[in-house]
Design a protein that fits this description.
This protein is of the alpha/beta class. It folds into 2 domains: about 10-55; about 65-315, 2-enoyl-CoA Hydratase, Chain A, domain 1. Helix content is about 45%, strand content about 15%. It has 14 helices and 8 strands. It has helices spanning about 15-30, 35-55, 60-65, 75-80, 125-130, 135-150, 170-175, 175-190, 205-210, 230-235, 245-250, 255-260, 280-295, 300-315; strands at about 85-90, 100-110, 110-120, 155-165, 195-205, 215-220, 225, 265-270. Strands 1, 2, 3, 4, 5, 6, 7 and 8 form an 8-stranded mixed beta sheet that branches. Strand 5, helix 9 and strand 6 form a beta-alpha-beta unit. The longest helix is centred in the N-terminal third of the chain and has 19 residues, at about 35-55. About 40% of the residues are buried.
Length: about 325
């Protein structure tokens, strides 16, 4: 457990209160010949019980809050933690480079791979730099270029999905946002190499599926993945922001719901209290899950991989009532 997070979620107030008591106790005991170990252990046990109780039965809206937590590991955290000799590749060779879409080549567990993902940033400066993870058309065209590169050199593709959606600005629409997303989905379906995508935070709308049309779609335990944001859904269906919790329920956007519906393939466990409480552990868990799925896919030939991917998405929804 740690108390380094700057955002306190509504349902975490009791957790933070206990954490603050532990920190205060340790601070008071500094430099004094006082044994506080027994009291600290008691509070630690109480803290663990509180965290377990709070996170064992999160509502969809609470999971959405956890998925958006600013201290969760983001795309570049996973890249730095899992990819050796990562070399960023920039630009779409048509207009510009979009920093919201991270892309490059590197080695994952001694496997040469192409990596793609949306980066949100951790503070105001980096969030502005990466446009809050909302890619423009050039970002999705960069993704297509790198997928073609992976296909040419027979390198598996690993994608880290974390975006509230594609950038909705006028300039993005003027440069063909819808076409860029559609072409990125098409490219995902055409490549003849293994594609593994992991929803690490938010998987929002076409901006997410543009790099999540994969052989294996994995999701972190408290991530979300939906066709529209809960806020957008509430404003359209109920014309009221007050209905955001109802919208979140209706969207079936949690990893648990999506696994039942057959939309995703695997749920990756997060540390107790969410990924933001122990980034190192969750990055390791994600790496193990990616490796396991790549080992399953790599023996298949290109046509088998392509057919598997196409059939996977064609059958979605056929058995839903």
């Amino acid at each position: 457990m740690n108390n380094n997070t700057t955002l306190v979620l509504d349902f975490e107030k009791n957790i933070v209160e206990i954490e603050n008591k532990i920190e205060s106790l340790k601070h008071l005991a500094e430099g004094q010949d006082v044994d506080i170990s027994q009291e600290v252990n008691r509070l630690q046990q109480k803290l663990e019980k509180q965290v377990r109780a709070s996170y064992s039965n999160l509502s969809p809206w609470e999971k959405s809050q956890v998925a958006r937590h600013p201290e969760r590991p983001h795309c570049l955290d996973y890249v730095h933690g899992l990819i050796e000799d990562f070399t960023p590749l920039c630009g779409d060779r048509l207009f510009a480079d979009d920093e919201a879409m991270v892309g490059g080549i590197g080695r994952f567990k001694n496997i040469s791979v192409v990596v793609l993902g949306q980066e949100k940033g951790h503070d105001l400066e980096t969030r502005l730099k990466y446009n809050f993870g909302m890619a423009k058309p050039e970002g999705y065209r960069k993704a297509q270029r790198l997928m073609s590169l992976a296909d040419k050199f027979n390198m598996p593709i690993i994608c880290f999905v974390d975006t509230s959606g594609a950038f909705p600005g006028v300039e993005a629409e003027a440069r063909g946002q819808a076409e860029a997303i559609a072409s990125s989905i098409q490219k995902c379906l055409q490549v003849k190499v293994p594609v593994v995508s992991v929803v690490i935070g938010e998987g929002g709308s076409g901006g997410a599926i543009a790099i999540a049309t994969a052989n294996k779609v994995l999701m972190l335990e408290h991530a979300i993945y939906s066709v529209i944001s809960p806020e957008g859904c509430a404003s359209i269906l109920w014309r009221s922001a007050d209905k955001v919790k109802e919208a979140t329920e209706a969207l079936k956007l949690t990893a648990q719901d999506l696994k039942k519906l057959g939309i995703i393939d695997e749920i990756i466990a997060e540390p107790l209290g969410g990924a933001h409480r122990d980034p190192k552990v969750v990055i390791e868990n994600v790496g193990n899950a990616i490796l396991r799925n790549l080992k399953e896919l790599m023996p298949l030939n290109g046509e088998e991989l392509k057919k598997m991917r196409n059939e996977k998405f064609l059958k979605m929804g056929r058995n839903l009532e």
